[in-house]
Amino acid sequence: MQPIAESELIINARGAIYHLDLRPEELAPTVITVGDPHRVKEVSKHFDRIEVQREHREFITHTGYIGAKRLSVVSTGIGPDNIDIVFNELDALVNIDFGTRLIRPELSSLQIVRMGTSGSLQAHIPVDSFVASTHALGLDNLLNYYRLEQNMEENALLQSFNTHTGLNTQVTNPYISGAAPSLLKHFVAEFHQGITVTCPGFYGPQGRVLRLGIRNPALIDRLTEFRYGNHFISNFEMETSAIYGLGRLLGHQCLSLSAIVANRVARTFSKDGNALVERMIEHSLGILSTLPG
Ligand code: R1P
Ligand code: URA
C-alpha cells in the first residue's frame, strides 16, 4: 500500500485534519453533527465536562463526557457538499494513521447522529414535532460521485419514485440509503419516522417560490403523495442523504433526527424553533448517553 499523498490527506502543522482542524485523539467515538455552528454549544452545555474546543471556518467541535460516555459535537454548515468534507475527515481521523498515511488494518465505526431542522411534507407531521429518518432519498447528486450500490428493494423504490416525480429526467439521479437499525430502534417514542428527502438548496430545490419561477411547481405535491408499500416521504432537509450514503460506504452507524420547523402542506412555521431544537437535543442526548459505543 502507498502512503496517501499530502495533496489528498491534508494534515496541518498541529497534526490536525485540514478543514475540521482536529487531531485523532480530539474526536470521540460518538459524534453529533449540527448544521448551525451556534448549535454546538447548545449541545455541549449538556456535557458534564468539555475537554476539547476547536474552531475553523464553519466547523466548530466540542468533545467531552456525559457520565462515562465520550461525545463530540461538530458543526457541518449547510448542505451535502459540507457533509462530503466532514465525513471524509471524521473517517480519516479514526481509520487512517496520520504518521504513516496508511489506512489502518482494523477499521473503526463511529456512531454519528445528526440533530437538525427540517420541513414536514405531511399534514400529520406538524410543526414542533420530531422525525427520525428511516431512509434518506438524495436529490443532491453527492453520492453519484462515489460507488454507492443500491440493493433490489432500493432500486424498485427509486424506479417508482422516478416514475412518480419525473425528477430523474429533469434535474438529478436520485439515490437512497437507510439509517443504522441499531440507532433508529431507540428513536421511536416521540419521533415520527419516514423517508427524508435531501435537497441541494432551500428555495427552488425545495419548491419555494419568492421571485424566481421553478422548473417543477408540483414538487411538494408529488413528494407528499408518494407511497411505496408502507414507505412515505416525511420531510425535506439538506444533509441526510449524504450522511446515510457516506456513512454506509465508510462503515459508520448513522441516524438523522429532525426538529420540524416548517410544514409545507399546511404552510406554517414554528413560533419558537430554538425551544423546539433544545427539546430535541435534551431528549436525544438522554437516549444516546445510555447507549454503548
Ligand atoms: C436550512 O435552513 C438548514 O437547516 C437544516 C437543513 O438541513 C439546512 O442545513 O438543518 P440544520 O438546522 O441542521 O442546519
Ligand atoms: N430546513 C430545510 O432544509 N427546509 C425547511 O423547510 C426547514 C429547515
UniProtKB/TrEMBL annotation:
Matches recorded under Pfam families: PNP_UDP_1
InterPro entries: Nucleoside_phosphorylase_d, Nucleoside_phosphorylase_sf
Boundaries of every Nucleoside phosphorylase domain copy: 30-266
Reactions listed under catalytic activity: uridine + phosphate = alpha-D-ribose 1-phosphate + uracil
Signal sequence, start to end: none
EC number: 2.4.2.3
Enzyme class (EC, first level): transferase
Protein name per the record: Uridine phosphorylase
Organism lineage string: Bacteria, Pseudomonadati, Bacteroidota, Chitinophagia, Chitinophagales
